[in-house]
Amino acid sequence: MKLYLVRHGETDWNIASRIQGQTDTELNEKGRRQAEEFAAVIESQGYRIDCIYTSFKKRAWETAVIIGKKWGIEPKVKPGLEEICLGKWEGYTWKQVRELFGEEYQVWHDNRRYQAAPLGESYQQLLDRLLPALNEITEKEKGNVLVVTHSAVIMTLLSYLYDTPFEDMAKKYKTGNAQIVEIDVQLLEKMNREWKKA
Known about the structure:
Layout: E1 3-7, H1 12-15, H2 29-44, E2 51-54, H3 58-71, E3 76-77, H4 94-100, H5 102-110, H6 123-140, E4 145-149, H7 151-161, H8 169-173, E5 180-183, H9 185-197
Parallel strand pairs: 1-4, 2-3, 2-4
Antiparallel strand pairs: 1-5
């Protein structure tokens, strides 16, 4: 079994550098093309995809549907795969957040794994819903799985799996639109066991 994570295609908020979080934005035309091109490229590179799971956010769902059509696969929506909730900051750019929410931003910035944004969730809370969702997928499926999700989800998971400080996630694991990342399933299963014990 292989587990692949792919970030959704481009949205207008990506272009404007606005924080999307759980705001339900849609793909733009370029994002739809990216999804189509992604499906063609992974096929040409010899990937085999047996099933597709997706976040329920429109931008992820539409990306999954476009990819699924190429492979003749109907995507399955899986709660827990959605982007981190950044509460009051959604819709702003990070520059605006630093200017308008300076003190709250600094508290979050200095302990972002466990500190939630105002009315949002922390990266640890994201992990607490993401790991069970991925565990259910890997226990159920035997073939190769493609998961269509979001930037912070991928960065958070990689930071957790490879014991990277969460403040370094964007420097080490920034993922572009319609970009694929292969997850080490054995490492994920090991970390899941440790997470359950904690």
